[in-house]
């Protein structure tokens, strides 16, 4: 018998006649690692929450969810808490205490764990997850990666048999995200924990999964091994083909034969063997000139949150040309969000100068600065929601609502409550509200967070159209693939300063970690290729030369 058994499960939210889940049948064995994926709104989060009754949303439900042969609803709250661990997408939501060690002990205290046993479990988890060096830190001082690792450790302290993770890396930089997935894989391998993980970024997840389950419009459309998922998605004509890891996408796009590579290492070996080219050590330096008349300019800007605290921005210089898509990347805690808040004067620097369209920012009235000149999409889209439906959220604004509904793909969501939407759908709804102000400068804080691969491509094309119309887009992001494919200019923010700026393709071709999977996979053969399309183009050229 399967350890987790879902039988003919259907679910719909009270405010939406469309079924969020329809006829789901799924069996998961004990100790399996299952990757759950699908486009935004496909039902991933709704399905995961059916496995944790304390988090199951209100709505109409039919079908059965069994764990170890028993309906999940029949387990007591204490049994559910200790047996089923759940890590959420929103990092801050799950943190409830002020200190790291308090957070590790909180769940155990709630379960009434004896003090000596609790101290042992807390020490064990801190050591296992490498938390001992920041064990006594305040939670508010941690980076995003540390906070999410703390969430995972706190859940694991209760020794669950099942670990459910809902897009746990959505707010993490690429390095922290890879480390986090490696840790989850180690838990599955070392401790035999059953893992069900929902993700949009699949580069690191698919290779360590036993199975990949794909949802589409609330239905299961694929359920197979990682090596077979590409063929399964092609059979059903799924848009999720574009979300597969870069080695898989490139292999399929180049019509190659043999075994499909799942990892960068496999892809590198396949390319090297296929084209018989010796490794090339080549780095192309960025050729970039700062704009003569930037629409956004920061000079020696310094920001700190408290008088005696360390600077968050340490003499930051930045110049953004009008009508460009300028991306800023960097690790969690490097100062990216602070930079955006400073540009729209939500945070005032204690030193330095900010110019917007050639004018000192202090010279603008608030009514002049916000709205038609500058609009910002915050990292937390829920902060913009004040109404009971998407339609009401948009009608609160002025402007061409039909146009932004089409732009953001909200046609089927207008009557939904914003808080009932998936993370990606909330992001698109918040973007629509921001766009209705028709700004000249659009500031975007992690705009692709929670967005599926098909919509990202659509979103990027529409951002490019805005730039052609003269809108300047400045975004900060952990999404390296998105920035490499669609940005004009990319800057790296490190330790509160911009340390490098370059044209997108040249910038990423010269990096070791802050670069695309396609570049890491192909640089020994095609050193200047950065995107999937670049690699496929070089493969076709090589095939022609060899024929």
Helix content: 25-40%
Q: Using only CA atoms, what is the Rg?
A: 24 Å
Strand order of the largest sheet: 6-7-8-3-9-10
The largest sheet, given as strand count, sense and whether it forms a barrel, is: 6 strands, mixed
**What is the tally of helical segments?**
20
The secondary structure category is: alpha/beta
Shape: globular
The low-pLDDT segments are none
Distance between the termini: 54 Å
Q: Average pLDDT across residues?
A: 89
Q: Care to count the β-strands? A: 20
Beta-strand residue percentage: 15-25%
Question: In words, what does this structure look like?
Answer:
A hairpin with an 8-residue loop joins strand 1 (4-12) and strand 2 (21-28). The chain is an alpha/beta fold and 547 residues long. The chain has helices spanning 44-50, 77-83, 91-94, 100-110, 115-128, 144-156, 174-191, 229-236, 246-253, 264-275, 336-343, 366-369, 390-395, 401-408, 423-435, 453-468, 480-486, 504-509, 517-522, 532-546, and strands at residues 4-12, 21-28, 33-38, 60-67, 70-71, 84-87, 162-166, 194-198, 211-216, 219-224, 296-303, 313-320, 325-329, 351-356, 359-360, 374-377, 441-445, 472-476, 489-494, 497-503. The strands form four sheets. A six-stranded mixed beta sheet has the order 6-7-8-3-9-10, sandwiched between helices. Strands 16-17-18-13-19-20 form a six-stranded mixed beta sheet, with helices on both faces. The chain has a four-stranded antiparallel beta sheet with strand order 2-1-4-5, with helices on one face. Helix content is 35%, strand content 21%. It has 20 helices and 20 strands.
């Amino acid at each position: 018998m399967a350890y987790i058994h879902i039988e003919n499960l259907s679910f719909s939210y009270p405010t939406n006649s469309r079924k969020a889940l329809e006829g789901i049948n799924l069996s998961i064995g004990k100790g399996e690692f299952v990757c759950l994926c699908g486009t935004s709104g496909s039902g991933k989060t709704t399905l995961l929450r059916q496995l944790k009754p304390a988090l199951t949303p209100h709505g109409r439900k039919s079908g059965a969810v069994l764990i170890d042969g028993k309906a999940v609803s029949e387990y007591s709250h204490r049994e559910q808490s200790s047996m089923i661990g759940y890590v959420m997408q929103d990092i801050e939501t799950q943190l409830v205490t002020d200190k790291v060690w308090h957070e590790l002990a909180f769940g155990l205290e709630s379960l009434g764990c004896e003090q000596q046993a609790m101290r042992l479990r807390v020490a064990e988890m801190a050591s296992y997850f490498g938390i001992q060096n920041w064990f006594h830190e305040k939670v508010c001082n941690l980076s995003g990666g540390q906070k999410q690792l703390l969430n995972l450790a706190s859940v694991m302290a209760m020794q669950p048999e099942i670990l459910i993770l809902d897009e746990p890396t959505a707010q993490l930089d690429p390095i922290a995200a890879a480390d986090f997935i490696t840790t989850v894989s180690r838990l599955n391998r070392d401790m035999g924990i059953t893992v069900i993980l929902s993700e949009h970024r699949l580069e690191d997840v698919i290779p360590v999964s036993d199975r990949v389950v794909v949802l589409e419009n609330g239905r299961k459309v694929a359920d197979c091994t990682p090596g077979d998922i590409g063929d399964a998605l092609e059979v059903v004509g799924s848009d999720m083909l574009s979300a597969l890891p870069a080695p898989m996408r490139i292999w399929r796009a180049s019509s190659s034969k043999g075994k499909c590579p799942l990892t960068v290492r496999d892809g590198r070996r396949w390319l090297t063997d296929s084209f018989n080219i010796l490794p090339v050590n080549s780095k192309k330096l960025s050729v970039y000139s700062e704009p003569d008349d930037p629409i956004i300019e920061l000079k020696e800007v310094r920001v700190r949150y408290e008088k005696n605290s360390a600077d968050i921005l340490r003499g930051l210089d930045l110049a953004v040309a009008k009508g460009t898509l300028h991306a800023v990347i960097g690790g969690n805690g490097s100062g990216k969000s602070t930079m955006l808040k400073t540009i729209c004067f939500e945070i005032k620097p204690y030193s330095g100068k900010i110019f917007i369209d050639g004018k000192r920012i202090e010279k603008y009235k608030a009514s002049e600065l916000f709205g038609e000149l500058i609009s910002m999409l915050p990292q937390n889209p829920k902060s913009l929601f004040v109404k009971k439906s998407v339609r009401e959220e948009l009608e609160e604004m002025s402007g061409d609502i039909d146009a932004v509904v089409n732009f953001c793909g909200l046609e089927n969501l207008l009557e939904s409550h914003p808080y009932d939407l998936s993370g990606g759908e909330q992001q698109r709804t918040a973007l629509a509200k921001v766009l209705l102000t028709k700004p000249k400068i659009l500031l975007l804080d992690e705009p692709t967070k929670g967005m599926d691969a098909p919509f990202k491509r659509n979103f990027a094309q529409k951002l490019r159209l805005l730039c052609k119309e003269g809108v300047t887009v400045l975004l900060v992001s952990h999404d390296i693939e998105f920035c490499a494919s669609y940005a004009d200019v990319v800057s790296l923010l490190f330790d509160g300063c911009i340390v490098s700026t370059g044209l997108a393709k040249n910038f990423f071709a010269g990096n070791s970690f802050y670069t695309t999977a396609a570049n890491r996979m192909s640089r020994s053969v095609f050193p200047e290729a950065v995107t999937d399309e670049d690699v496929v183009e070089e493969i076709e050229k090589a095939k022609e030369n060899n024929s």
